[in-house]
Amino acid sequence: MFRRVCVFCGSSRGDQPLFSEVARSVGRLLAERDIGLVYGGGNIGLMADLANSALEHGGEVIGVIPSALVERELAHDGLSHLHVVGSMHERKARMAELSEAFIALTGGLGTLEELFEVLTWAQLGFHSKPCGLLDVGGYYDNLLAFLDASVTARFVSEEDRRLLVSDSDPERLLAKLLERSRQSTPESARMEGAK
Ligand code: AMP
């Protein structure tokens, strides 16, 4: 099982109650599985729904927020730990260091930027942590179709396209990410971790 998972999601709630409901169910799922949540540290939008649900269900929640956004994103004051960092770059690097897998929920430009940053790091071999996209209510169908088009156009290899694992159901997505992580962890390291 993962010790901690990093979740990227919107600082808004979007136009459907479903987006908040799913963010809350992801927070609860992580807490119930005893997986720590690492997220952007804000108390607004889906970020708030996700973090508050994980906390309500007894989970560990770690926020990472740049000092410049503490006011704008209403830095959450009830987390297990809040890291206040100097820049957006540091935020992403710290979130990645603390986590064993990444999940993007619905969100806007910031969420997309964070997802694609960790995907490009995986593509370059800087990490081998699994990256997942939760496609709630078909929100990401066009993005997934575009990624397939980028393979057809030969800008993205089929192997790199497979770096992004997607599903519409949080539990199934988590199971797929775990399976990925087992595949990418050599047997020797797994034995080491099991000791
Ligand atoms: P959004 O999906 O646009 O609502 O943004 C979701 C989160 O991504 C917010 O907490 C933003 O501050 C954050 N974000 C936006 N751009 C970046 C970036 N370049 N690096 C780290 N976090 C970012």
Low-confidence stretches: 188-195
Treating each run of at least 4 consecutive H or I residues as one helix, how many helices? 8
Biggest sheet, open or closed, and with what strands and sense?
7 strands, parallel
Element pattern in H and E: EHEHEEHEHEHHEHH
Report how far the terminal alpha carbons are from each other: 14 Å
Mean pLDDT: 95
| Quantity of strands, as a count | 7
Ions, cofactors and other ligands present here are: adenosine monophosphate
What does this structure look like?
The protein is of the alpha/beta class and 195 residues long. The chain has a single domain, classed as 3-Layer(aba) Sandwich (Rossmann fold). It is 48% helix and 16% strand. It has eight helices and seven strands; from the N terminus they run E-H-E-H-E-E-H-E-H-E-H-H-E-H-H. It has a seven-stranded parallel sheet, sandwiched between helices. Strand 2 (36-39), helix 2 (45-56) and strand 3 (61-66) form a beta-alpha-beta unit. The model is unreliable at 188-195 (pLDDT under 50). Adenosine monophosphate binds at residues 10-12, 40, 42, 69, 73, 88, 91-92, 107-111, 113-114. Adenosine monophosphate (AMP) binds next to helix 3 and helix 4.
